[in-house]
C-alpha cells in the first residue's frame, strides 16, 4: 500500500476523475452556448460570464489531472496544487451562490417591470407580441395581470382553451363583445375577417394570467441553478478533504528501530558456579 492508504487513494482518484468528467461536460455546454448566442445582441452582456466559465472549467479540469497524477505517483506537489486550486475554486463558487440567492428577488422584479412595460398589450410591438404568444401557448395562460381582459376586445388565438385543456387548466368564457385574433394585430396583413372573427359563445380562454407563472419559473430556475452549484461545490470540497488526508498520510513517518550488523563475534563472559567462585 505504501504510505497512502489504498482506500483513500482510490476514492480520491475516483473523485478527481468525476470532477474532470463534469468539467469537460460543462466546458462543452459553455462552448455550445457561446456559439448559440454568438450572433445575438445579448452576446456583449453575457460574454464576461462566458469567459469566467471557460477559465473555471478549464482550471478544474487541469487540477483534476494533477490530482490523479499526484495520488498515483505519490507526488506531494501535485496534491498540494490540487487542494489549493480546488479550495479557491470552491470559495469562488460559494460567493457566486450567495450572490445568486440575493439577486433572486431582484431578477423577479426586473421580469415583472419588463413585462408590465408592454401594457397595454394592444399596443405592444411585434417582437413582444411574438414572445407573449409563445408564452401563452406554453404556459396555458392569457394576458399578463388580469387575464384575457389585458387584450381588450381582441383576444389572440393562443389564449383559446381547447376541450382537452379545459379539464386540466382553468378556463373561462370571455364577454360577448370580444373576438379572437388569428394573426398578430401589428402584422402587415389587413384587418379583415381572414384573421379576426367573433368569439363563439362556447369558446373558452385560459383564466390564469401569465406574469405570475413566468415570475415563478424565473425563481425556480434561479433556485435550480444555485442547487446545482452547491452540489458541484460539495464535490469539490470532498476532493479537497481527501487531498488533505493524503498529504497527512504522506507526511506520516513510521518509526522503525535501527538494526546494526557487525562482522566481529560477540564477546561472551564465562560464568562460574557458585562453589568455584567462592574458592
UniProtKB/TrEMBL annotation:
Report TM segments.
Answer: 12-34, 46-70, 77-95, 222-248
Q: Which GO terms describe its biological process?
A: regulation of vascular endothelial growth factor signaling pathway
- The name under which this protein is listed is Tetraspanin-8-like
Q: Which Pfam families match?
A: Tetraspanin (PF00335)
The answer on whether this UniProt entry bears the keyword Methyltransferase reads no
State the encoding gene. Answer: LOC116360624
Q: How does it sit in the membrane?
A: Multi-pass membrane protein
Domain of life according to the entry = Eukaryota
Q: Give the chief site where it resides.
A: membrane
Q: Write out the entry's keywords from A to Z.
A: Membrane, Transmembrane, Transmembrane helix
Determine if Transmembrane is one of this entry's keywords.
Answer: yes
The subcellular location is: Membrane
Q: Which organism is it from?
A: Oncorhynchus kisutch (Coho salmon)
One Gene Ontology CC term in the entry:
plasma membrane
Q: Which residues form the signal peptide?
A: none
**UniProt-listed InterPro entries:** Tetraspanin/Peripherin (IPR018499), Tetraspanin_EC2_sf (IPR008952)
Amino acid at each position: 500500500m505504501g504510505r497512502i492508504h489504498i482506500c483513500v487513494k482510490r476514492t480520491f482518484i475516483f473523485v478527481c476523475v468525476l470532477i474532470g468528467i463534469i468539467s469537460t461536460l460543462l466546458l462543452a455546454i459553455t462552448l455550445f452556448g457561446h456559439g448559440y448566442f454568438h450572433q445575438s445582441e445579448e452576446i456583449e452582456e453575457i460574454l464576461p460570464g462566458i469567459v469566467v466559465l471557460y477559465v473555471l472549467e478549464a482550471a478544474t479540469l487541469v487540477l483534476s489531472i494533477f490530482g490523479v497524477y499526484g495520488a498515483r505517483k505519490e507526488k506531494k506537489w501535485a496534491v498540494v496544487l490540487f487542494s489549493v486550486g480546488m479550495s479557491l475554486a470552491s470559495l469562488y463558487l460559494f460567493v457566486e451562490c450567495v450572490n445568486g440567492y440575493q439577486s433572486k428577488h431582484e431578477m423577479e422584479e426586473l421580469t415583472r417591470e419588463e413585462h408590465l412595460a408592454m401594457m397595454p398589450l394592444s399596443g405592444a410591438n411585434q417582437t413582444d407580441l411574438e414572445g407573449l404568444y409563445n408564452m401563452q401557448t406554453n404556459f396555458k395562460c392569457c394576458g399578463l395581470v388580469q387575464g384575457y381582459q389585458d387584450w381588450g376586445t381582441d383576444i389572440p388565438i393562443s389564449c383559446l382553451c381547447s376541450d382537452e385543456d379545459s379539464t386540466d387548466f382553468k378556463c373561462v368564457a370571455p364577454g360577448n363583445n370580444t373576438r379572437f385574433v388569428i394573426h398578430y394585430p401589428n402584422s402587415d396583413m389587413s384587418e379583415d375577417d381572414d384573421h379576426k372573427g367573433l368569439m363563439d359563445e362556447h369558446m373558452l380562454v385560459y383564466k390564469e394570467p401569465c406574469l405570475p407563472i413566468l415570475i415563478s419559473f424565473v425563481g425556480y430556475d434561479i433556485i435550480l441553478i444555485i442547487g446545482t452549484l452547491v452540489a458541484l461545490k460539495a464535490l469539490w470540497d470532498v476532493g479537497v478533504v481527501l487531498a488533505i488526508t493524503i498529504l497527512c498520510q504522506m507526511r506520516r513517518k513510521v518509526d522503525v528501530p535501527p538494526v546494526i550488523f557487525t562482522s566481529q563475534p560477540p564477546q561472551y563472559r564465562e560464568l562460574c558456579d557458585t562453589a568455584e567462585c567462592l574458592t
